[in-house]
Design a protein that fits this description.
This protein has seven helices and no strands.
Length: 171
């Protein structure tokens, strides 16, 4: 059953990504990217990485894609005029085939190497709340704190800039 779900989610992610890349309408391309991110979250669930799946949906499919859609709507980007030339479509398909072949070769090289972590150990070390929390607050504590200070400074700067604009408009 897990293998069937993996194939269905993987096929869905690949099809949604292809629709995203080949679509001329930006809003539809962004919606296809949301579908791709959702399929990837499903793949994380199959790996028992529920925290990573939730973060994938909340951060990427949620916040980042809402930002993309706002930018598309604010810029009022229209679809491209005309049809895609046959040679350009051919080059896109060739590029997709080359990238797919490179990925297949990379997977075959990794399978042949002896440095692969057994699946049981990898599952225990990947994606769980405990594993992410342990790494975040031990190994990556300093970068985490630096990022929090930078985010705090950005929030304070945004509030100061917004307050100046409000004060300038009142005068």
């Amino acid at each position: 059953m897990q293998l069937l779900m993996f194939y269905l989610l993987g096929l869905g992610a690949v099809v949604a990504a292809l629709i995203m890349v080949t679509n001329k309408r930006p809003v539809r391309a962004a919606m296809s990217l949301i579908a791709t991110m959702s399929f990837l979250a499903g793949l994380y669930v199959l790996l028992d990485a529920h925290l990573i799946a939730a973060l994938q949906l909340i951060v990427y499919a949620g916040a980042i894609m809402v930002l993309f859609l706002f930018v598309i709507m604010l810029l009022n980007i229209e679809e491209k005029e005309g049809r895609l030339a046959g040679s350009a479509l051919l080059w896109q398909m060739i590029a997709i085939a080359v990238v797919g072949l490179v990925f297949v070769l990379m997977v075959s090289v990794v399978k042949l190497s002896d440095n692969v972590v057994p699946l049981g150990e990898a599952a225990a070390l990947f994606g769980t709340t405990r594993a992410v929390g342990k790494m975040l607050f031990t190994e990556y504590l300093l970068p985490f704190e630096i990022a929090s200070v930078l985010l705090l400074a950005a929030i304070v700067g945004a509030v100061i800039l917004a307050k100046r604009r409000i004060d300038d408009s009142d005068q």
